[in-house]
Amino acid sequence: MAGVTVRVRVRLFGAFRRYSARPEVVFEVPRGTRVAELRGHLAAALHEECPGFDGQELLALSALAAGEVLLGEGEAIAPEAGEALLAILPPVSGG
Amino acid sequence: MGIVVARVVAEPIAEAALLSELAEPGHGAQLVFRGVVRNLNLGRAVVAVTYDAHAPMAERVFREIAEEARQRWGVGLGVGIVHRMGRVAVGEASVLIVVGSAHRDEGYQASRYAIEQIKVRAPIWKQEHYVDGDDQWVKGHSLCRREGGA
């Protein structure tokens, strides 16, 4: 049954881990939500998880990925089996 | 024909094993780059670094970087990239790059290419732990692809 919302699971990495004791946040967004719009929903979910959330600037600099693929800002969230599994990737600093 | 090895590991990097894995009779050089945790960053004394990683994606990026190097400097190159995750003490290796090549010049170039690309493309994050007990996630390079970009 196609609903009007999509459940989104966003895995947290790097500096985002400080905002939750869990490795991911889960929330619902309207079907057809694009990556650029998802950022607002993610910020709200992080605020809910951590009332002192202060990572707006970090969020703006971070990329979203589905599986192992980076998403563009204009791409719509594509659920599989009713859920979208995403990751929020802050600026990287490996090596 | 050299091989590609791309791994994210939670234990100390097995350098000798990687060198053996990449050994080829046609290679006259094995370039080893070992990135090591330093005891000082931006004036603060560091005791350890914790690395976080999106491991499957990081390994995919390592393979892409290795293949790019082989396209540029020869498919005969063997390229091994291994990055550690978890807490790494000062003096321990966080990343190891081994390039096997027929001649040294392409090995040096490919090795340099690999580390520079890893730093700006691999989904890996560094949390520094300081002598005073404080810690901080290091500011890095954004992976954002804005519209109109590549």
From the structure above, extract its key features.
heterodimer, A: 95 residues, alpha+beta, Ubiquitin-like (UB roll), 5 strands, 29% strand, globular, B: 150 residues, Aldehyde Oxidoreductase, domain 3, 5-stranded antiparallel β-sheet, 4-stranded mixed β-sheet, 3 helices, 30% helix, 37% strand
What is the percent of helical residues of chain B?
A: 25-40%
Beta-strand residue fraction of chain B: 35-45%
> Helix tally of chain B?
3
Give the class of chain A from helix and strand content and strand pairing: alpha+beta
Which sheet architecture does the biggest sheet of chain A show?
A: 5 strands, mixed
Largest interface: A-B, 24 and 34 residues
| Overall pLDDT level of chain A | 94
Apparent shape of chain B: globular
Strand elements of chain A, count: 5
Number of domains of chain A: 1
In oligomeric terms, what are we looking at? heterodimer
Second-tier CATH architecture of chain B: Alpha-Beta Complex
**Number of H/I helices of chain A:** 2
By CATH reckoning, the class of chain A would read Alpha Beta
Give the SSE string of chain A. Answer: EEHHEEE
Count of domains of chain B: 1
Strand order of the largest sheet of chain A: 2-1-5-3-4
Helix share, percent of chain A: 10-25%
| Uncertain spans of chain B | none
Task: Reconstruct the topology from this structure.
The complex is a heterodimer of chains A (95) and B (150).
Chain A: E1 5-12, E2 24-30, H1 35-49, H2 56-61, E3 63-66, E4 69-70, E5 83-89
Parallel strand pairs in A: 1-5
Antiparallel strand pairs in A: 1-2, 3-4, 3-5
Chain B: E1 4-9, H1 15-22, E2 29-36, E3 40-41, E4 44-53, H2 55-73, E5 78-84, E6 86-89, E7 93-101, H3 104-121, E8 124-130, E9 135-137
Parallel strand pairs in B: 1-5
Antiparallel strand pairs in B: 2-7, 3-4, 4-6, 4-8, 5-7, 8-9
Helix pairs in contact in B: 2-3
Description:
The complex is a heterodimer of chains A (95) and B (150). Chain A is an alpha+beta fold. In chain A, 22% of the residues lie in helices and 29% in strands. Chain A is built from two helices and five strands; from the N terminus they run ββααβββ. Chain A has helices spanning 35-49, 56-61; strands at residues 5-12, 24-30, 63-66, 69-70, 83-89. Chain A has a five-stranded mixed sheet. In chain A, β3 and β4 (69-70) form a beta hairpin. The longest helix of chain A has 15 residues, at 35-49. Chain A is globular, with a radius of gyration of 13 Å. The mean pLDDT of chain B is 95. In chain B, strands 3, 4, 6, 8 and 9 form a five-stranded antiparallel sheet that branches. A four-stranded mixed sheet of chain B has the order 1-5-7-2, with helices on both faces. Chain B starts with a strand and ends in a 13-residue tail after the last strand. Chain B is α+β, with helices and mostly antiparallel strands and 150 residues long. In chain B, a hairpin with a 4-residue loop joins β8 and β9. The A-B interface holds A 11, 13-15, 17-18, 61-63, 65, 67-68, 70, 72-74, 87, 89-95 and B 35, 51-54, 56-58, 60, 83, 94-95, 115, 118-127, 137-147.
